[in-house]
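Why run this: before we spend reagent on co-expression, it is cheaper to look at a predicted model of the complex and decide which construct boundaries make sense. The entries below are exactly what would go into the expression plan.
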Amino acid sequence: PPWDNTIEGIIEGFHVVAAGKIGVCVNQIEKRQKAGLCYEDAWNMTSVQLASASEAHCRAIILATYFKETQIRVDSASPALKQVLLQLVDLYVVYWALARLGDLLRFTSISERDVEQLQSWYEDLLNKLRVNAVGLVDGFDIRDEILNSALGAFDGRAYERLMEEAMKSPLNAEPVNKSFHDYLKPLMQGKL
Amino acid sequence: VNGDLQRERDNCTFSVTELTNLIDGDAQKTEERKQREEMVLKEGIHLEPVPAVYLSHKEKYELAVKKSCALFKMIKRLQEEENAGMENYMAVLGGSLGSAILGDGNPITLHYVMFIPTIMGQGTVEQQAYWIGRAFNLNIIGTYAQTELGHGTFIRGLETTATYDPSTKEFVLNSPTLTSYKWWPGGLAHTANYCIVMAQLYTQGKCHGIHPFIVQLRDEESHMPLRGIKVGEIGAKLGMNGTNNGFLGFENVRIPRDHMLMKNSKVLEDGTYVNAPNSKLTYGTMMFVRVMIVNDMCNYIAKAVTIATRYSAIRRQSKMKPDEPEPQIIDFLTQRHKLFIGIASVHAFKLSSEWIWNMYNNVTAELESGDLERLPELHALSCCLKAVSTADAAECVERCRLACGGHGYMLSSNLPLMYGLVTAACTYEGENTVMLLQTARYLVKSWHQARQDSGTLTPTVSYIGRVASGRRM
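The model came back. Tokens follow.
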């Protein structure tokens, strides 16, 4: 079927990829059995492709679920939040389309022009989401004590916190560590 | 607040509070979560006079036990005051709050996440009545031992044996080889005094496969290991060094017959074995845990991407234009490319885990009524979702750490520790590659079913029948 460069089209493409990969695995196993391998050996020889087919299956399910459930979720949201959440879905779907381009090229009729469009679409989304990036992570509402990070605190005082944490190192409890007297000084005086 | 960061907040085009409420479910749930966090954090259990990273391996464990006991004492108070249910344990123990308090692993988690749920899922009513009360009151501390030094995800390969002795109406547990020693269970080394042990059941000279047994490991007073019990700690790990992972070997350890959990399969006093209606029933606990894992991965990705995004708003580096000051690093498209997929992944996995959780409850309800039709589908789905979510989470956390450059390499950024916790999830509760191959078995079976057009495919694989399988075919 012709490639449809929309979110729904990409998700359908991932289903085609998953079905295609499973089909290829089944064929490989049957071909290997015809060549004389027992089922278990044929399975093992095909297992790299089988694991990849499972990942494609799961990716298709996550994309479809994320897209479908977000449509439901944003029903009650304000237009501003709805727009951002839908941009996130688009970003996620287009990101994985670009990440799994080989599979899409192999099993669907996606073209070079479609790919160029996807890449531009993705970069536009990175631009659009820029203004809301901090708001989106603030939305997870993770308290500083739970984040437990000198870099990610709500107030953004990363440098001050990095220094505060550094000062907690037991080595900073004294200006001269005893190893100076035991080792360094004798070394520097040629007495070690 | 840092000026750059404040400006980001001023420019945001939507209500952050509305988004938080949406993520929690609604404003009420946000309020409940905040109250729970406030109540737990104001106890100050998480505070460390000396950061745990500067403690010895032994001191880390001792700190973890101290914190765990303070946490469970608080949970018990919660239970008495507000008659809290299991979900409160999960909320306090699991996810962000639990790992915030206990940083690098908790030696009592398995007591709540595996020991109690397994007894509830596989114990008879009498056995539940006897054990659950003592466990909830923390009169005993349990763990769960399945994986062995020589066998992990392939459960049927486990070597520990439980042989029924009809003359004394007891099971005799043995570890026939070094590779049969239980290896990994959290809390097993020095913390738990009871353990659910998965062992090959032998009765009347026949092996009936893996079954759960409750074994006392240590004396309840002295905490000394009982006779025939060889138990200890497995040593330092990449992460989770507060979890007290242990090894466990048996030498002719005798336990009463009613210490085999017999809700599904039974051994009668004369040694007769009564089979379970469906061997898949024992997957219940494991599937429950896998759904929890997907949820946990959301929490870890959310934390990592929060840290890296805020940092990217305050960090200024490298002039983009000669006559302009150093920009915020979030202005570089490559930095957004590293971070924004992480933000979207949190929402994708959260919605997916809620969806599979609802499916798990529907299927479990069907299980009770004996309808096992969708169990294989749910099992296949929980396997691949666990594999993909943990692999994506490990990749996201590592990408966030790298996005913070050298400061991401500091333990005080919390990103390395988080990576240790997340990457462990790629291995425990079913090693990822094995999980994907288990799902593949179901997909291949579904493909054959579709090709022979024999019966309808279950919803999550119906696309196989619907989709002309691409250009290649």
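The longest strand of chain B covers residues 206-216. Chain B is about 50% helix and 10% strand. Bring this page to Monday's planning discussion.
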